[in-house]
């Protein structure tokens, strides 16, 4: 048991964190400034990612390196739980489901670059965010390169190529977005239930085959201490993030952004706030925003868009990861060889370029995109995984299969 657990300081972090979340959420409800709810959403997102070490890049690479599918399964649990949650939001008309367009060329090119970059960087964007918060030097270097790659695509020399690829869109015959329900002619809620049932059946089958792995072991600590100070199994983190997706979608929609969790543009826009000026600030729903449109129309302020929901989400994600690391005793600066740090930086740059081309990363395109059944994001996910596996095989494993 580490010193943090012996002294019980985890209790202080736990109590202060819950108090902080309640206060921010309460202020948001009182003031109706819903963008503030992105802070508790991001904080909890960071905690859940760190608890399960649920990095998309690691999940994919570990399948090749260690034949370990637990993190991939954790991601799948996350997606299915979010699907069911989005079904409820749709049924009660709390949000308008917003699948991404089928930008096939963007997803192909972006997925290849992104997949390679995640291996070199040692993580996807969300992975490097929570790993940086707990002291991983390579992740810090990669996180430095990511916004540079994103901004070069969004506003720099690669923007022309980016815009050309975005015009290559496959649509339904009626001009609508291609999604799984549209292709199959089956309602979203039916498909969500089918995926959930199939997942539960699969879990039950494999649980019987590996009963010993799921056996409960005695522990010298109580349940609350295990929750706050011990790592979580990936599927538990996936379940928690999947549930978090539901209020996060509501929070995002109320803040002028009709989409669930995402981090790519939050990372880039956080840097823009430091290096640039003259922005178009997005922080409220279109209904509220329309009330001030007349005032702004007389004196328009063209500039780069800053979505405050994303910026606050990314910032609070790192805080939540740090707090989670403190409670588990995992905050430690991990020095790395200089060559690894340099490679991680350039890997982060590639991750940024790939995510910008693909208009999203593991969080926006796989977690959220798959949960919304966007067919285009399925393509991105498949290309990313294959690219990650090939790079892992040659870069991490030296082109050899480990016995």
Q: Quick recap of the structure?
A:
With 403 residues, the chain is mostly helical. It has helices at residues 3-7, 9-31, 38-52, 56-66, 70-91, 104-121, 125-133, 137-155, 159-166, 180-184, 188-209, 223-229, 234-253, 264-275, 286-289, 293-297, 308-328, 338-357, 362-371, 375-396; strands spanning 279-282, 304-307.
Give structural notes:
The structure is a single chain. The protein has 403 residues and is mainly alpha-helical. The chain has one domain (3-211, 227-287, 302-396). 69% of the residues lie in helices and 2% in strands. The protein has 20 helices and two strands. The protein has a two-stranded parallel ribbon with strand order 1-2. Helix 8 (137-155) crosses helix 9. The chain is globular, with a radius of gyration of 21 Å. 48% of the residues are buried. Mean pLDDT is 91; it is low at 287-299. The chain crosses the membrane at residues 12-35, 72-92, 104-130, 137-158, 186-206, 235-254, 306-323, 343-366, 372-396. One of its GO terms (cellular component) is plasma membrane. It is a multi-pass membrane protein. InterPro entries: Sulf_transp_TsuA/YedE. Keywords: Cell inner membrane, Cell membrane, Membrane, Transmembrane, Transmembrane helix, Transport.
The proportion of residues in beta strands is under 5%
Provide mean pLDDT, rounded: 91
Number of strands: 2
Helix content: 55-70%
Radius of gyration (Å): 21 Å
Count up the helices.
20
Termini distance?
34 Å
**Whole-number tally of structural domains:** 1
Task: State the strand order across the main sheet.
Answer: 1-2
Report the major sheet. 2 strands, parallel
Give the overall form. Answer: globular
Low-confidence stretches: 287-299
Reading the helices and strands in chain order gives: HHHHHHHHHHHHHHEHHEHHHH
Counting helices, strands and paired strands, the structural category is mainly alpha
Subcellular location: Cell inner membrane
Main location: membrane
GO cellular component, one term: plasma membrane
Pfam family, one: Sulf_transp
